[in-house]
Input
Amino acid sequence: MWGFPELLVDVIEKHHQEPPVAGPVETVEVVALANTVARILQVGSSGDTRKVERQPNTLARVGITADAEDRFFDEILSTVDEAREMLNLLD
Output
C-alpha cells in the first residue's frame, strides 16, 4: 500500500486487534501494547476518547506479569512526568 513496507502496513492494519494467545510476540503486538498503555494513561491523544481496558493477555505475552502490572504503569507515568517537567510542558 503506497509503497510502505509490508511490516508497517501489517502493524497499522492490525494494532487494534486482540493478540493471539500463543506463538512468538509479533511487532504488531508491541505497537498495540504501546497504543493501549498510552490511551490508558492518557499520554497524548488521537481524539479517540473511548474507554480502554488493560489487556492482561497482551502484557503477559511481552513478559509483564499480573504482579508487576501496576509497577509497569507507575514507572511509565513517572517517566512521562519527568519528561514533561524536563521539557516544561503543561497538561
Remarks:
- The CA atoms of residues 1 and 9 lie 7 Å apart.
- The mean pLDDT is 79.
- DSSP finds four helices and no strands in the chain.
- Helices lie at 6-14, 27-40, 56-61, 66-87.
